Amino acid sequence: MLTVDFNKLNIKPGDRILDAGCGTGRHLCEAYRDRGIHVVGIDMNWEDLRKAKYTLFSMEHSTGGSWMTSKADVTRLPFKDEAFDVVICSEVLEHIPDNRAAVSELVRVLKAGKNMVVSVPRYLPERICWALSRDYHNEPGGHIRIYKKRQIQSMMEAAGTKCWRINYRHSLHVPYWWLKCMVGHKRENSSIVNGYKAFLEWDIMKKPLFTRMLDKMLNPLIGKSVVLYFKKDVVHGT
Fold it and tell me: Which of 20, 70, 144, 218 could join 171 in a cystine, given CB atoms 3.0 to 4.6 angstroms apart?
């Protein structure tokens, strides 16, 4: 389930891409499919990194690029200034106490004039999840804040970027999380939740035209994620 639209990023062979908070590698592996792309994924979860590494390793013979994964903190990135042509940070900032330090680091390692994509849970669907379940956002490592679109955009632009595109994704996933919050987000034996999960898995695999159209129609209304595309400022005369 991709949140970032790579077709909008003008990625070229030889580009270096950072996925900060890569998880199991959904965006990392998608970027690596392009021949000649060099991808780096960081995360704080060893098990997620292991799964990402396994998938990337299995792809090595079908791409001319390179990859690396590492356990690292997004608030203290172990990379030099302007090391990357694209930076992705998807569904991460809502977990981080010092989100401004994280944003500063993400911008620091991005080359001037290049693109960054940031996504966070959208305000209204996330607020409803919080209202339905206190445990949903109180568990260790969970969501500690809810962003409004203008808040995340202002924070990113204050760090030295300019927003050039905003869209919304994954509207069909919103009812799944509402249902989970209603029955208990850790409960595994709910037939209605498991039934809806099976529908989502079928939809991801089959991609029927009807659900693609429905998702596109509903995204502006209840898209689960707000996805913001930024370009790092170019400072002249330095």
Answer: 218
